[in-house]
Amino acid sequence: MTAMVLTVSDRSARGERPDAAGPLVAQLLEDAGFTVVRTAIVPDERPQIEAALTAAADSGEVELLVTTGGTGFSPRDVTPEATLAVCERLTPGIPEAMRYASLRITPRAMLSRAQAGIRKGTLIVNLPGSPKAARENLEAVLPALPHGLKMLLGNTEDCARLP
Predict the structure, then answer these.
(1) Phi (first) and psi of residue 127, to 5 degrees
(2) Which of 23, 34, 41, 127 has its CA 20 to 30 A from that of 139?
(3) Do the strands 122-127 and 64-68 form a parallel or antiparallel pair, or are they unpaired?
(4) Structural element, H or E, at residue 89
């Protein structure tokens, strides 16, 4: 399965800070068997985030599009709004599971505004920008994603049976 990682960060987009979460997420996805076909960095600007999400999903090139950054309370954190604007269907169980797993680590997990949804044949999942939190959140849902993606792509065989 193919994936893309989109980092949302003003400072990384301006070259002021290296992107730490994006490469980590790409490596975790590759370790799980995904082929990461592209990575990109955009600033915390809703039109640019929406354009990047739309272009990637509409290209048919990626089944999974993971974002890092922009999920907090800062006025510039608009990744969830951009995600909601471009998705055709929401997948609320994914961010619920990430917050549940993170709450076992820190009470601040409840402050995450991450979203997840589907646009065409692409699942979009928001992760926090902190490498530690991005890892914890992705690891919480990663085992279920291949099955969900197979269903999204039309393979509903054995949907109810657990591996």
Answers:
(1) -120, 160
(2) 41
(3) parallel
(4) strand 89-90
Give the pLDDT confidence score for residue 151 in this predicted structure.
95
**For the chain, what's the residue count?**
163
Largest interatomic CA distance in the chain: 48
**How many CA within 13 A on the CB side of residue 94?**
26
Tens-place pLDDT, residues 59-111: 999 999 999 999 999 999 999 999 999 999 999 999 999 999 999 999 999 99
Nearest in space to 79 (alpha carbons), one of 123, 48, 101, 39: 48
Ordered structural domains, the chain, with CATH: 2-152 (3.40.980.10)
E strands present in the chain: 2-8, 35-42, 64-68, 89-90, 116-119, 122-127
Q: CA-to-CA distance for 105 and 163, rounded, in angstroms? A: 27
pLDDT of 46 higher than 80:
yes
Q: Are 113 and 84 in contact (CB under 8 A)?
A: no
- Judging by DSSP bridges, how do beta strands 64-68 and 2-8 pair with one another? parallel
> How many Cβ atoms sit within 10 Å of the Cβ of residue 157?
8
The encoded tokens of residue 95 equal 């961010």
